[in-house]
Amino acid sequence: MKASDVIKDLQKISNPEKAKILQRFFKTGKGQYGEGDIFLGITVPEQRRIAKKYKALDLNEIQKLLLSKIHEHRLTAILILTYQFLESKEKITKFYLKNTKYINNWDLVDLSADKILGEYLIDKNKDILYKLAKSKNLWEKRISIIATFNFIKNNKFEDALRISEILLNDKHDLIHKAVGWMLREIGKRDLQTEEGFLKKYHKQMPRTMLRYAIERFPDKKRKFYMKK
Question: What is the C-alpha to C-alpha distance for residues 82 and 124, in angstroms, rounded to an integer?
Answer without folding.
Answer: 19
